Amino acid sequence: MSQQADFKKLIAHCKEYGFIYQSSEVYDGLSAVYDYGPYGVELKNNLKSYWWKSMVQMNDNIVGLDSAIFMHPKTWKASGHVDAFNDPLVDNKDSKKRYRADVLIEDYMAKIEAKINKDVVKAKKRFGDAFDEKQFRETNGRIIERQKNIDAIAARLAKAMTDGDMADLKAQLEEYGIACEVSGSKNWTEVRQFNLMFSTQLGNIAGEEGKLYLRPETAQGIFVNYLNVQKSTRQKLPFGIAQIGKAFRNEITARQFIFRMREFEQMEMQFFIRPGTQKEWYAHWKESRMNWHKAIGHPETKLRFHDHDNLAHYADAAVDIQFDFPFGFKELEGIHSRTDFDLGAHQELSGKKLQYFDPELNENYVPYVVETSIGADRMFLATMSHALIEEQVPGSDDPNNKRDVLKLHPALAPIKCAILPLKKNDERLVAKAKDVYKKLSLSFNVQYDDTGSIGKLYRRQDAIGTPFCVTVDFEALDDDTVTIRERDTLNQERVSIDKLEGIIRDKVDMKQLFV
Ligand code: GAP
Question: Which of 250, 264, 267, 319 to mutate for ligand 1's pocket (most ligand atoms within 8 Å of CB)?
Fold first, then answer.
């Protein structure tokens, strides 16, 4: 299956099985805004709990916060978002479609990369086992030329973005002959800066004075509270503040499902440190965050670091953790060394001292900050795209006997166990199954289902990632035993009802992600 087909299948699966719906679908939807359905909200909450546990509960020098979405408008002046939180916008004059100029250029580079990959695949086929991909890439003349071209375009793009050189972005669109995907024409407007913040108005104050922004990142709520938190929790540097919450960006291009949304959720942690120690803490958080991703079973081959080519206005070093999404490697998380940019700017604009007294140095200073920032929705997409698999049913000899199974780590699965009576029209079986459901529901998110044949019910649970199915059959009425079926192996075991809780707990506990 092609990557595109895989991605379409994933989106359809998310809708069909109640993970994600387009927002306001009855009105034909609102672009780049999505709603999480019954299983989606459970999976997302589990991902957020995994993050919160690893950040706040397992680090005694990191504490939590839940700051408001609305903040004083000066916050965004100080942070640089009013002046510099822009994307380069360009319109195609024929189709009237809007694009980000940098994304058009990145797509152009991706096309060259796709040509390289095609050559590699062809050569692999030709040379078979003897094929050395690294050597081929380093010695094949056509590939070397194409790679040089990509590197030159990337460097020029990074420079234009850092310098805010809109004229050069326009020149690049023209030089590379980039055309609109809708009209096919190269008839572009000038490239201009477009601020990504949504604004709204306070009810009782007219004009600019009452202008409020919907926060484009949760980080600023942490910065402006840092002294409150430090004093009220008596933290000493280094310490961190973590927060999960909504952020809003008026993205120009709304593509790739929940990858780029206008309303999304971030999980951010700002780590306050002594100036001069930023290199060491930056390295620490890079490693720690990469390990967090691997611990839920995302393989190394799907994760990589990517240093930023052009640094955001607040950073002196920045790296992305990229994930191999169905549409290629893209940013999943950012780790940024933000220096004292934010606290320094808030101190200056507010006129309030935001310094920390370091008892060891007997000195006051504005702390430096290393930030880790990940989108909960992107994490959701990464997790779903890795977990959704179409496979031949284990144990079956028939290659056409396929199933869709969501191989989520049991600790992340929306439903931990489904309780299924063998027959829905036998009152005794139904009563027994409901009894098992009641008992287990005290401990886990479990589901009772008698809406189809056992085979169909199993397939449905596989498709939503339920690690265990318990079938209540006639034997259960005599000896209080049931069969428990494991999602990935399809092994079935007969166990006493009393043992169920222990068996399930052993596998689905969040602790499993940390051992
Ligand atoms: N406080 C730093 C910050 O906001 P960012 O790289 O702009 O940095 C951090 O965003 C993370 O937020 C990204 O790595 C991504 O996971 C997520 N994110 C950013 N924009 C997003 C969008 N439009 N839709 C979904 N997630 C987004």
Answer: 264
